[in-house]
Amino acid sequence: MYGEEHTEVARGLGNLGALLRNKGDYEAAEPLLRESLAIDKKVYGEEHPEVAIGLISLGRLLQAKSDYASAEPLYREACSILFISARSVKRMPTPELDGGGGGKSDHGSVCSS
Asked: Which of 41, 63, 81, 89 is the most exposed, having the fewest neighbouring CB atoms within 10 Å of its CB?
């Protein structure tokens, strides 16, 4: 029904990757999260909030693996995208940012000061 580069495929890969990350299966989670992010970048473009969500999810995985040097630039890029998006719509897309649930996974607040 969906092609390999459909947003629903990206969402499914991201959900499965987040589940595996939460279970501690980091090696299985990483390629799924990277593939989900790649699809979102191709479909939405580099500066879309969905891309930011994928960056945060991958950043959380890398942080869980104690790879802080790799996680930090992903978080910074995601925050940049979200701040730009918020300025353009006068409202930050909150469900994925404030821990309110919804979206691909539970990201917590990564862009708050």
From this structure: 89
pTM score of the predicted model? 0.78
In Å, the largest CA–CA distance within the chain is 42
Question: What's the first-to-final CA gap in the chain, in angstroms?
Answer: 42
Residue 53: domain span: 7-89
- Hey, which bits of 1-113 come out as E strands? none
Query: What 8-state DSSP symbol labels residue 35?
Result: H
Is residue 13, in this structure, part of any structural domain at all? yes
Which tokens in the block code for residue 38? 């790649």
- The answer to whether 111 and 97 have CB atoms below 8 angstroms apart is yes
Confidence at residue 44, expressed as pLDDT on a 0 to 100 scale = 94
CA 81 to CA 75: how far, in whole Å?
10
Give backbone dihedrals phi and psi of 4, rounded to 5 degrees, phi first: -60, -25
What is the enclosing helix (H) or strand (E) of 85? helix 68-89
